[in-house]
Design a protein that fits this description.
There is one protein chain. The chain is α/β, with parallel strands linked by helices. It has a single domain, classed as 3-Layer(aba) Sandwich (Rossmann fold), CATH 3.40.50. Helix content is about 55%, strand content about 10%. The protein contains eleven helices and four strands; from the N terminus they run H-E-H-H-E-H-H-H-E-H-E-H-H-H-H. Strand 3, helix 7 and strand 4 form a beta-alpha-beta unit. The protein is globular, with a radius of gyration of 17 Å.
Length: about 200
């Protein structure tokens, strides 16, 4: 079992809004939700964010029943009851983005007192506008690799938990690293390759 350093134990989890695009892919969702369950990040989302990733996934992969995705949504909400943000709509008019449909993500961050938006769509969230609201943006890869640099043992332990969540498929540690690489978590993978025995 990996030793937990005093630096890792002192880690104060960031409050981060998870954009729909990072909840859409199963394996990335598994990793991020597990990181939140392991208290390495305080994840936040809204019913609107849930609606968006479920709608897009159901449209693009019609073989996945919508009912199954709704069960996933409920499991996520049950596992992380503090993640749900409500009463954020009043903040939407003060957010100025190129695509008005993205404003709800920033508004949720404002309402939650978050410091981060985790998204693959970095261009959709201009840094100056986020800064106005006390937010900054990171890709999942940048977020997870930065987190690893702060608390490597805790991140590896959480990734091991995420791999154990895949009990039906019994994914090996090397295959799990390949999955992470396929999820575009290349910086994270570069860091954890030497820790396969801990996964």
């Amino acid at each position: 079992m990996p030793r937990i350093s005093s630096k890792a134990m002192a880690l104060k989890p960031a409050i981060a809004v998870l954009d729909a695009c990072v909840l859409y892919p199963f394996h990335l969702r598994n990793v991020l939700v597990q990181m939140a369950a392991d208290r390495l990040v305080e994840a936040r989302w809204t019913e609107q964010i849930h609606d968006e990733w479920i709608r897009n996934l159901a449209a693009n992969v019609p073989t996945i029943p919508v009912e199954r995705l709704q069960v996933t949504r409920q499991l996520m909400n049950n596992a992380l009851p503090a993640a749900m943000v409500s009463d954020y709509q009043d903040h939407i008019p003060m957010v100025h983005l190129t695509d008005p449909d993205d404003r709800h993500v920033v508004a949720a961050g404002i309402a939650a007192g978050a410091g981060l938006v985790i998204t693959w769509n970095l261009r959709d969230f201009p840094a100056p506008e986020l800064k106005r609201h006390g937010l900054r943006k990171l890709s999942p890869d940048a977020f997870l690799s930065d987190l690893y640099d702060q608390a490597p043992d805790l991140v590896v332990g959480s990734l091991a938990n995420a791999r154990r969540n895949l009990s039906k498929t019994r994914v090996s540690a090397p295959d799990f690293v390949l999955i992470l690489n396929n999820q575009k978590l290349t910086k994270l993978v570069a860091r954890i390759r030497k820790r396969l025995t801990d996964l």
